[in-house]
Structures
1.
Amino acid sequence: MSLIHETDYGTPRSKAEKLVTITVDGRAVTVPEGTSLMRAAMDAGIGVPKLCATDSLEAFGSCRLCVVEVEGMRGTPASCTTLAAEGMKVSTQTDRLKRIRKGVMELYISDHPLDCLTCAANGDCELQTQAGAVGLRDVRYGYEGENHLGQAKDVSNPYFQFDASKCIVCSRCVRACEEVQGTFALTISGRGFDSKVSAGLGSDDFFSSECVSCGACVQACPTATLEEKSVVEIGLPEHSVVTTCAYCGVGCSFKAEMRGEELIRMVPYKDGKANRGHSCVKGRFALGYATHKERILKPMIRDHYLQPWQEVSWDEAIGFAARKLREIQAKYGRGSIGGISSSRCTNEEVYLVQKMVRAGFGNNNIDTCARVCHSPTGYGLSTTYGTSAGTQDFDSVEEADVILVIGANPTDGHPVFASRMKKRLREGARLIVIDPRRIDLVRTPHVEADYHLPLRPGTNVAMLTAIAHVVVTEGLMDEAFVRERCDWAEFQDWATFVSDESRSPEAVESVTGVPTADVRAAARLYATGGNGAIYYGLGVTEHSQGSTSVMAIANLAMATGNVGRRGVGVNPLRGQNNVQGSCDMGSFPHELPGYRHISRDEVRETFESLWGVKLDNEPGLRIPNMFDAAVEGTFKGLYVQGEDILQSDPDTKHVSAGLAALECLIVQDLFLNETANYATVFLPGSTFLEKDGTFTNAERRINRVRRVMSPKNGYADWEVTQLLARALGMDMNYGHPSEIMAEVAATTPSFAGVSYQLLEEKGSVQWPCNEQHPEGTPIMHIGEFMRGKGKFVITEYVATDERTGPRFPLLLTTGRILSQYNVGAQTRRTANILWHEEDLLEIHPHDAEMRGIRERDWVKLDSRAGSTSLRAKITDRVSPGVVYTTFHHPMTQANVITTDFSDWATNCPEYKVTAVQISPSNGPTEWQEDYRELSEDSRHIAPALDAAE
């Protein structure tokens, strides 16, 4: 194996359709109009020396190293900024050019440390290679004059350092921060000789600045000025493997650069179709959890969760788990056990879990974390459009004219896609944000929302219906699209419904709290502004009317004709790396892979003939039903693959009661997470770096996950599940995940064309991928909806039962922060903890003053479900009457507060609306202290001698 080197063409590819032909050093080359001479030369196989140019950034023309000669043109123009024109004759190597380049390079080197042999970038430095390329052999200028060699390093960032003495002021880092990331944290301060890269204000270092540690600047730097600390400490990598990030639903492709079995760094892969060479702080740097000291590598068992753990062999642990499950079924019945699959594991691993439950357990008690996040997306989009997924690829945003973001915070939850969205907004697209909180997108450098509609939590349906009211009553719908593509009779019923005056912006202003004029203006903009794209998140789905909200969004897109082409669509921003895939693979209790209902005889027969067992035709238990049944005493055994349900699911006290009532809880994970407090079997899991497989991201893109190191626990997760299935008597003998995907393709129409061979050839594909779509489907519903005619659904607003009142006058809503991921099990075990050491409660200044609360005070948060305490952050990001917190730290116990209310169709919890009261506090509550004690006690591992006895 060797390092994967991607060609740098110097400037971005031109998207023009017209072609021009030029001659470069006697070679004819045809390129799209608008292509730079530098890139045209590379297309002809001729490299032009460069330092300030790279193909991820727009041409800049500052280094003067890339000069060329053009017949008929005066001087020596920069090849990066000069565009190819028909018939041009270009020379890249003449005596004159050689002298100029050598002189320019000599000036750079004269103010640069000559410590190449000990430099961390030795062998990976463009300044070094370009000095060789131009033939520089000596430097006539000494170091006696003024220079920059004595400048101090900035090592404040935990992941990379900034060595100003090695900076050549090429501006690539500054431009990457602006053009690629869109944060504008870096600048060139000073002029002339005093010019230097600065992070934020003069007093800022990288850590204290607005830098979000995405790594774009490090990636762009041509010298060792910006360098990963891992490279400085360990050395340069010697081979690399392309794989897929295991954090959010964007699904970024990375080159895992290795030295032996040690990960040196993750470098975003330019050919990754989801991220296009960009990254965020989590995927780029937050990998320390894979080797963290708290990671459990040996299987453990115990008879009761109050006992210490005992380390045992894999055979003992698997045998113990299988025996317990069979004993429970013999005592309580076939339906007394179940499983929960992981949205962090691969498609192949998730497929095996649902197969084990259905064919091995003999029931359909299988569910996944999508139950508590995007299950309403599946229900709503399947009902209206005929498929349970988003309509577009991420590239589509580049052609959007109006972007409507509702209930999502892309810059924190999906930062790489957010950077692409911000770039489109800087280019002129218009923006509407519907969110109770003023998210960063509302106002960020060079981006400002045209309309921010800060609605009251829980009123999404009323808001969306009011927008539809404006569209219909003002005649802004696309009637031709609706007549051709949708059920006209259903549309008429819906149009009559939304046109009722009781659903006008004026009528619902008292419900949503948003001024009528803003709602009407936003509706007109979305309907008439060109290509309208809707992006939504958990702020839509995690409500008692989550499914209704998704259908209301689908209605709005159909009514305005914003479906079935580039730049438009309905796009759920899914939270976890494979939450789409876990749903695709049949992890719901009522659906087999491909979203086909378990009650359909012909669907069951497909799997029965392959698996050799009879399948139950009745849907199994959903996750909330499992907890209820456990408390009732009818559900006694649970296998949990890679999910921390105790921290992530609502109404923690009810969840803990359910887990405590189990006779056997099997947890398969990297760490002793909160759920493992009640486990009797712990099976060590593997990281994404230690396995082969596939993830499916939020745009339905199936990406390869490739093993880059051996599993530190001994097995990949799919192998662990297979061991348990065999112990239960199943004939499960896969040799590689590709064999599992072959079975998926053989049984699931939307995956019929998917194979590892195809993924190797294409890099990735988007389902459906089958005979009709052999290379996948980037844009859904072109010409016709998957269900035939689009279905308009009446979306009556029904207020949640979770109401404010004298006892609980405020509304709590929850979300994520950039540096942390989900329950924080991975990111809390990395240096990302430096940016978010604890969960804070955001409270409006008015509400804080009314309660005598100051910044960083401990406050007690009470709801009808429970109480917890955390520190206050006073901010006007939230409106009066609304408070907000994250849930990344287990000791915060945020879900002690959330209630058991859920979506009417899918049981997705109503995380986003909880009536609360806030009062000053002296610190953690009694519940938090008791929980901390239980958590510490439950993690005790008996010494090896005790275990043997």
2.
Amino acid sequence: MKKLFSSISLPTVFVIPFIIQIVSAVGIVGYLSFKNGQKAIREITQELREEITSRATQYVLDYLEIPHTINTLNDSAFNINILNVNNPEKIRDYFWKQVKLTPKINTIQIGIHEQEKYIGVGRTDGKLVYKISDPLTTQREFQSYAIDEQGRPTKKISGRPNYKMRLRPWYQESFKSQISIWSLYIFFSDKTLGMTLSKPIYNESGKLLGVTGIDITLEEIGDFLKNLRVGRTGKIFIIERDGNIVASSTEEQPFLILGEDLVRLNATDSQIPTIRSTANCLQNHFGDLNEIEKSQHLEFLIDDERYFLQVTPFEDPKAKGLDWLIVTIIPEADFMAQINQNTRTTIILCIIALVIAATIGILTARWVTRPLIALNQAAKDIAQGKWERTVHLERHDELGELAQSFNSMAAQLKESFQTLETTNAELVVAKEKAEVANQAKSRFIANMSHELRTPLNAILGFTQIMTRSQTLPRDYQDNFAIISRSGEHLLSLINNVLEFSKIEAGKITLNEKNFDLYRLLDDIHDMFQLKADGKGLQLLLKIDESVPRYISTDEVKLRQVLINLLNNAIKFTETGGVTLRATPLETTDSSQSKRIFFVVEDTGAGIAPEEIDKLFEAFVQTEIGKEAQEGTGLGLPISRKFVQLMGGDIQVTSQLGKGTTFSFEIQVKEVEPEAVESQKPKRRVISLAPDQPRYRILIVDDKILNRQLLVKLLNPLSFELKEASNGKEAIEIFESWQPHLIWMDMRIPVMDGYETTKKIKATTQGKATAIIALTASVLEEEKGGVLSAGCNAFMRQPFREEDIFEAMHEHIGVEFIYEEVQKKEVKLTRDILTRENLTTLPEEWQRELEDAILSSDRKTMNGIVEKIALEHEELAEALQKCLYNFEYEKILNILCE
């Protein structure tokens, strides 16, 4: 064992930390020094670039101010008639004096619009020249004359025939735009780059006389840039948005001489490597130079050397036509000499530190590292499961104590791992049981939904069919309405259980909709008014005026939460009353997002403090709730989850014997009234529209009641109907009869709906046949399976008759004739059913209505309401609604006011 340990290079292992520490310390210091140096260079070069760019910008603005000043003076001279377009000699003398006094101006000129006359004074080869073109005097020849000391033309220097002043770019652009504008081009006579500032001029009455122009060369700007010191080797240049050079700090001309032609030089074609590379960098970085809207600082490499770049947009604030980029480029190498020297020094220090660290490490490793290697090997053995492995060191120093601690730790680890293995095995078994239970629960929920919703489909469906009868007595209609409401209530209980299952699975989502909050609260208040009156309770609705009326959130979930809370409040309150309040909460957000605070307060029995924490647990009820023997214990857990989805939470406070207060806040968006869809009245189908084919409809369902429901619904409308009780029978009927539409139950014997649909859709005729799935399942994943099998649509049972007709219209184009529904303004019952409206009725009708209510004579009540409807339809509907909901006491209270 000793020979094995002695063969390992322990000094090398021990020396490494010393080397790493010292080299890292020196290296980090050097690295930070290098980075700080680079940072300092970036800051210095940025300040330098900004300073140079600022100076260049200011110089160009000052240089361009001269043409603006002269143009302004000339405009004023023509405006106040100091100069007159009919006096060319005075214009010539005036321009001559201006050019003589401003050496930086190349030419001052005017194009007179009506006369098509051109007059100008400029410089050619350093001498002043008078230029004129006139359709009458010069026959449109552009003539140049030398000028004596008094500004008089002496001899003709040159002439150019057929000069059309109105076609010159400087004239056209300003004339069309009616503003001051720059035109940049090459002055061929002087072989230099220049530009013209054009400005329309008017007389004192506002009539356009023509366009004045000031020519300047850009050599002045180039000379200024050459005198700027941009580091040791930096450059500054100005380009247009298309990349053409305007001026630069180099000796390179901004144009190329190609024979007798002069062509603008693009920065990407420059012979100066720095300018060419910079232009390519800008093109690659921005793609289009027009994308540069503000000053930018960039870095890029040229031949592995870093360059700092600033590009700044420049425009003349007083005239259009100039859209330049001022580019300043400074190489990092101009400032890196000292930093590179410091880097070399750091490297030398690292090498020295490395030698010292290695020497010290070798000297100390011999008496320290050997016990550590032994401990390391023992740890490896334990990691491989050799729990009996221990370390034996005959030392009494810190390493000896470490060896003893290691042995103790190894024993504890052995015991812990054995316990962990046992626990893991138990967890695996528990996980498998939980997965089996979860799958069983999902199957149970799916089967329960199907088994309960299937008979409910028949109950609600046949109820709808019966209410279509026009000869059904009123009492029977009321009875069927009670059956329908009871079925809907049972369906809501089933949906509660399924909703909670979705919550547990994390599949619940928020479905936002624009709606009228005030109407929602009024509807809920009306819904519970009868129940509250029946128990002698006062039900109050208080809405703060600043609560937004038209909002966007999940209306269905908000309604369910309020119904759950109000139902509980009224259920467990025997005296006093229940109050629903809605108030806004202040938010710092200035957008349309708002927060609304709802409170449901009752004077009921209250909740014991020890039961409050369990209120929101599923299937848990308080002692008072158990005594009532109502509910499933899911209302509050579902309500809390819904509120959390809407951006809030529910709080509860209660005192035994005094009452309970539930409160919650939600986040909503305020919307405009126009964004809220008005409630469309339900229209009853009367018959098929004329001139339609006789549609063949196949109904596939193993439940005869479900088939009979669809048959009774569709048969009165003259559809051809056939029925099938299983998949095989459905395929046989399809092949021989070729229906237009198939209502397909997905759970049928012999061959299920999925396989049946696939076989039908695999045929040519089947592709043109609409198949709509009917299922009592509510599992969302089943919808995807149904559609992937080839069904055109998916409809859950119980269904409403209007959904059936709408689906047939959508998928096979059936057109129906609907019962006429008069459009009228929807008013709230509480706004219609008032003492003022009732007093408009004959006193005899009021007494008869009161007596009929007190004697519970429904027939007499209905007769009085029918008479009222002839004169006051809205009031009759409000009364009918209250009578329909057994709100007798509400009507009596209004009659007795």
